[in-house]
Write a structure and sequence with these properties.
Layout: H1 13-35, H2 39-64, H3 70-87, H4 90-101, E1 113-116, H5 118-122, H6 125-129, H7 132-138, E2 142-145, E3 149-151, E4 162-168, H8 175-187, E5 191-196, E6 200-202, H9 206-212, H10 216-219, E7 224-225, H11 229-235, E8 250-253, E9 258-261, E10 268-270, H12 276-292, E11 296-299, H13 317-333, E12 338-341, H14 347-350, E13 361-363, H15 365-377, H16 381-390, E14 398-402, H17 415-420, H18 425-436, E15 448-453, E16 458-462, H19 465-468, H20 471-476, H21 480-497, E17 503-507, H22 540-548, H23 553-572, E18 584-585, E19 593-600, E20 603-610, E21 616-618, H24 620-627, E22 631-634, E23 639-642, E24 647-649, E25 654-659
Parallel strand pairs: 1-2, 1-17, 2-5, 5-11, 11-12, 12-13, 13-14, 14-17
Antiparallel strand pairs: 3-4, 6-10, 7-9, 8-9, 15-16, 18-19, 19-20, 20-25, 21-24, 22-23, 22-25
Helix pairs in contact: 1-2, 1-3, 2-3, 2-13, 3-12, 3-13, 15-16, 21-23, 22-23
The structure holds alpha-D-glucopyranose (GLC) (2 copies).
Length: 660
């Protein structure tokens, strides 16, 4: 009798996989015949399929073995991958070949990312092409365009309610405009990042429309329930993600007379991945995007893609299996493609998505939250406690380090990390919420609440970087000292994300110190979602002020912010020690100062960052032993320091120290 392991995978799975592949070969043959690709290109696919097959089969088997039509779906999945490879443009295949040989290309110190909304930044895709020079001037090599696909009318959650993954929102342009932009970016050495919004579709997506028309096959694409009994059972263990939109996680649909699973907004219908037809359908959308020329796919809301009664339906093991299966298919059909995980969850869970076999890169929400935490407390204890055991990543993977993005800030640090240094996590989150909404006395921040849940006391924060860092308050109070401190806070944080290890990612607008946009409430489609406060429209007249060298008023502030970020980016690219992920904390006997060492192939750089508005001292001896030298130069200010004396950091100063 043939046994099985604890996942129910039979011991002779390898034999079953081989047999399945033999049965699939004639189907592949048909794809090659109709697509008429040459022998060499076909061979490349088959070599990779052979490499990945055993693993892929095992993953799909784990997810779908109990389906009566398992083989049918496997056949569809493999032929979809083959067709995608056959159709993949030569230029992309060429880039695939390079990236296979250089699996750490994204670890370079030359990589710097930016993210933007096409309409808010430049109106449309055509106009955006005119700004490629701007991105180059700023030093970007990675550009994330927020979702630009066809969306439902009215509120579409900033593009995350997609009605068609293969067409562009007509207000932004056409799929051909996107292709042209892709080419321009490629030529400028800028990688393109787009979202793969695979947890849900909009309620007006073709599949959802078929479901609404009563088509059973498509109803099975979603989670539909005729009465409240199952939803109620699920809800016993579910979190509420958008409690101010609607209580619970389900939405009643009058037409179908069914409850629909809607984790986010009521018009975003969660896809049912326990149905292999959904996996296959989304794979085709994914490969379509890959063949458009996307370099990195941002896997949206990864934590939520698998559900099981009695669990939180977040971060389930099957979610990982699912992403790994997508990953293997990408290795076969679009091997240059990378996945970026968007798991804004507890730190223990965030890392589980990161790996060469799953998502090669991931947002670092814990670092983001703790940098803001350190600014509020002026202390780095929780940050260092966390970094000490949570920053290291597997080979050929990287953090994406950011300060703000289009979403809110949630305080996703680990409760145990906090407890270990005597901090009560619940109280501390309350404090941070008070601080960043400006209610805590002496706070410099001007954030606003997002999704406040009065029952659980949970709340997140919206606001632009500049408004959270104190610039809005300082400008309003016309206080020069406060303005100076706010600018320094921003530079401090950028100095860290640009040097700590991984890919730094700017949310465009940060580089001009854009303030909160309170006018979002005038648009009924946006009024209910405070995240629009930090999604202001870019003001290109600000840039003219930069060029005109206007020295007065807010113009000079923006110029200072812009120039300092631009300078840090340019500096980063000259420092090979900043490539890769390895980072060692330096023990510094000063609770306000974060210190770390970056070492790469004989290059060393020490970073010291002062999180307080007072000057702070670091013993010269600490620097000498960490940096193995007696004289150092801060490459930012080009100033030398000797370790025979204490080193003094100015308020909020960051030093990037090279041995001289
Ligand atoms: C992601 C997006 C967020 C959106 C949600 C639902 O978390 O970043 O903006 O609301 O997914 O798609
Ligand atoms: C939650 C989700 C995250 C999403 C965010 C939007 O934090 O975990 O995926 O981006 O909500 O506010």
């Amino acid at each position: 009798m043939i046994g099985s392991n604890e996942n129910g995978v039979p011991n002779d799975i390898a034999f079953k996989a081989d047999l399945t592949l033999e049965r699939l070969r004639p189907r592949l043959e048909e794809v090659w015949c109709t697509s008429q690709i040459d022998e060499a290109k076909r061979h490349e696919f088959e070599v990779r399929l052979d490499e990945q097959w055993q693993g892929l089969f095992k993953l799909l088997f784990q997810l779908y073995r109990s389906r009566y039509d398992f083989f049918f779906h496997i056949e569809q999945i493999i032929t979809a991958a083959a067709r995608a490879w056959a159709e993949r443009p030569d230029q992309l295949c060429e880039s695939d070949r390079h990236r296979i040989n250089e699996p750490d290309w994204f670890q370079s110190e030359k990589i710097v990312g930016g993210a933007l909304y096409v309409d808010l930044f430049s109106e449309n895709l055509c106009k955006l092409r005119e700004h490629v020079g701007y991105f180059q001037g700023l030093g970007l090599t990675y550009l994330h365009l927020m979702p630009l696909f066809a969306v439902r009318p009215g509120n579409n959650d900033g593009g995350y309610a997609i009605s068609n993954y293969r067409s562009v929102d007509p207000q932004l342009g056409t799929i051909d405009d996107l292709r042209l932009l892709c080419n321009d970016l490629r030529q400028a050495g800028i990688s393109l990042v787009l979202d793969f919004v695979f947890n849900h579709t909009s309620d007006d997506h073709e599949w959802a429309q078929h479901a609404q028309a009563g088509n059973r096959e498509y109803q099975e694409f979603y989670y539909l329930f005729a009465d409240r009994s199952a939803p109620e059972q699920y809800e016993r263990t579910l979190r509420e993600i958008f409690p101010t939109v609607r209580r619970g996680n389900f939405t009643w649909h009058d037409g179908m007379r069914q409850w629909v699973w809607t984790t986010f907004n009521s018009f975003q219908w969660d896809l049912n991945y326990s149905n292999p037809a959904v996996f296959r359908a989304m794979l085709e959308e994914m490969l379509f995007l890959a063949n458009m020329g996307v370099d990195i796919l941002r896997l949206d809301a990864v934590a939520f893609v698998w559900k099981r009664m009695g669990t939180s339906c977040e971060n389930l093991p099957e979610a990982h299996v699912l992403i790994q299966a997508f990953n293997r298919l990408a290795r076969i059909a679009a091997p240059g493609l990378l996945f970026k995980s968007e798991a804004i969850v507890a730190p223990d869970e965030v890392v589980k998505y990161i790996g060469e076999e799953e998502c090669q890169i991931s947002y670092n929400p814990t670092l983001m939250a703790l940098l803001w935490e350190s600014l509020a407390t002026r202390r780095v204890a929780l940050l260092t406690q966390t970094l000490r055991h949570r920053f290291k990543l597997p080979k050929n993977t990287a953090w994406v380090n950011y300060l703000r993005c289009h979403d809110d800030i949630g305080w996703t640090f680990d409760d145990q990390d906090a407890a270990a240094i005597g901090i009560n996590a619940f109280d501390h989150r309350q404090f941070l919420n008070d601080f960043y909404t400006g209610q805590f006395q002496g706070s410099f921040a001007r954030g606003v609440p997002f999704q406040e849940n009065l029952e659980s006391g949970d709340m997140r924060i919206s606001g632009t970087m500049a408004s959270l860092a104190g610039l809005e308050q300082a400008i309003e109070e016309e206080d020069e000292v406060k303005k100076e401190l706010a600018i320094r806070r921003m530079t401090l944080l950028h100095g860290i994300t640009l040097s700590i290890g991984g890919i730094p990612l700017l949310y465009l607008g940060e580089e001009w110190g854009m303030l909160n946009d309170y006018d979002f409430v005038k648009d009924p489609a946006k009024a209910g979602d405070s995240r629009w406060i930090h999604r202001p429209k870019m003001r290109w007249d600000y840039l003219e002020e930069l060029d005109d060298h206007i020295q007065s008023g807010n113009g000079s502030i923006r110029k200072r912010i812009f120039r300092s970020i631009q300078k840090l980016i340019a500096l980063r690219k000259t420092l090979p020690a900043l490539a890769g992920q390895s980072m060692e904390l330096i023990a510094i006997a000063n609770e306000h100062i974060l210190g770390y060492l970056r070492i790469r192939e004989g290059h060393r750089l020490i970073v010291l960052a002062n999180f307080s508005e007072e000057s702070q001292a670091v013993e010269g001896n600490r620097l000498r032993t960490a940096g193995l030298g007696r004289f150092f130069q801060d490459v930012i200010q080009e100033k030398e320091y000797a370790t025979s004396e204490p080193l003094i950091l100015e308020p909020y100063q960051i030093l990037w120290l090279n041995r001289v």
